Q: What sequence folds into this?
């Protein structure tokens, strides 16, 4: 099976991101083999700048849960923050509803695995080892604890896909995972998992903003070089 | 009342709260400041309640694991016993008492330090694995940067350190800082876009 991402299927012209291609492939493989997708949302919560990555993870959780709602083992979500845990339950519940399989939903399918970063990582490790997981998706705010989860996932033979807003953690995921999301790639999960037209529009807006920043940096560099600022 | 009405109210509440908090950064009005402060307090209370709900949920997951004798039930039992002891000590003697500090200093701190040490080993093994499985130019650049950065901060008697220190300093101040800024700009734009999607109700993690 050739690896495709959802954007190719929807016919939208989006830049190909290998990690999202792998995500789609891994989700369908999990469904076919009767195994589970484990999505973990980090311990950053939803307040402040860290919240953006958490929300991006929740959107991916919703789409992946919707796809696996009828499978033998639906997606399991863990998080290291109370608000994220409550929202992940809500997202999971909504995904089961949207997949017309609400009776299958159980609140334990999305839970808090620990309050402190390392306790959270330790809690997530037990999910990887005990729940017949074939794919681990890490999207949210993580610190160095991401190394423990990514390594355990690799050790269990799982496909590991990771994306975070923390630069140190991004360096760790670059080393430990083959499918990683760098920088703004974390925030476009909705568009790449067919969450809706608004997400595609959002990507366009992000691209325009990026070009504006590039032009501003070039103008600033020229002005500095010319000694005008 | 149609089925869409509660959803409309949820979106309206989220959007208004978001706009009020955002406006508070740009406009200073007594009424707006008061409302902003009230919303912040409400958010703190809700975060506390969410944490409590999360902990109850966590305990429920592990109690069910123990009762059903699932794989890893023993670890769940250890977690439940540890939680009961820590909660009882904190509840009876207070979170800053000598007993609570003993638990922190003799259990939590050593465990976290050990995990940090394990991470070092994991990263070294991961780096070797990366070079073996992905022997690309990017991987080599990554390895080169790591080696120069590490060697540049330690003093080795048999290596001329000034050249390496200068190379490290150049690496950190030019390509590394440039790359970091590029990634951070991307993250900032992504965060703004996510915030706007939530403010406009296009993304609703609070749907049910």
A:
């Amino acid at each position: 099976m050739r690896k495709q991402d959802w954007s190719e299927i929807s016919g939208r012209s989006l830049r190909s991101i290998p990690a999202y291609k792998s995500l789609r492939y891994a989700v369908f493989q999990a469904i076919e083999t009767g195994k589970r997708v484990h999505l973990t949302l980090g311990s950053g919560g939803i307040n402040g700048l860290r919240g953006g990555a958490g929300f991006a993870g929740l959107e991916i959780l919703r789409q992946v849960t919707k796809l696996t709602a009828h499978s033998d083992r639906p997606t399991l979500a863990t998080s290291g923050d109370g608000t994220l845990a409550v929202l992940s339950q809500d997202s999971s519940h909504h995904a089961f509803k949207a997949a017309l399989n609400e009776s299958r939903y159980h609140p334990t399918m999305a839970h808090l695995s620990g309050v402190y970063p390392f306790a959270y990582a330790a809690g997530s490790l037990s999910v990887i080892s005990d729940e017949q997981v074939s794919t681990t998706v890490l999207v949210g705010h993580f610190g160095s604890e991401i190394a423990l989860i990514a390594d355990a996932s690799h050790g269990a033979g799982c496909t590991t896909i990771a994306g975070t807003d923390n630069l140190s953690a991004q360096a760790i995921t670059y080393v430990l995972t083959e499918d990683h999301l760098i920088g703004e790639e974390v925030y476009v999960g909705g568009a790449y998992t067919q969450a809706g037209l608004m997400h595609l529009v959002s990507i366009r807006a992000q691209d325009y903003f990026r070009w504006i920043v590039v032009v501003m940096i070039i103008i600033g560099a020229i002005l500095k070089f010319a000694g005008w600022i | 009342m149609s089925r869409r009405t509660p959803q409309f109210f949820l979106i309206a509440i989220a959007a208004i709260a978001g706009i009020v908090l955002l406006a508070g950064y740009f406009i200073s009005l007594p009424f707006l400041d008061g409302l902003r402060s009230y919303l912040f307090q409400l958010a703190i209370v809700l975060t506390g309640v969410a944490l409590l709900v999360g902990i109850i949920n966590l305990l429920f997951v592990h109690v069910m694991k123990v009762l059903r004798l699932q794989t890893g039930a023993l670890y769940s039992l250890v977690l439940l016993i540890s939680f009961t002891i820590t909660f009882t000590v904190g509840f009876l003697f207070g979170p800053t008492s000598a007993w609570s500090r003993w638990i922190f200093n003799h259990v939590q701190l050593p465990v976290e330090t050990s995990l940090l040490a394990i991470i070092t080993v994991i990263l070294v093994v991961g780096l070797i694995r990366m070079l073996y499985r992905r022997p690309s130019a990017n991987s080599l650049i990554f390895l080169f940067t790591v080696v120069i950065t590490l060697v540049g901060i330690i003093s080795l008697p048999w290596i001329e350190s000034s050249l390496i220190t200068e190379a490290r300093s150049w690496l950190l101040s030019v390509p590394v800082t440039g790359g970091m800024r590029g990634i951070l700009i991307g993250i900032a734009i992504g965060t703004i876009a996510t915030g706007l999607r939530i403010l406009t109700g296009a993304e609703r993690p609070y749907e049910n």
Summary: Chain B has a mean pLDDT of 87.
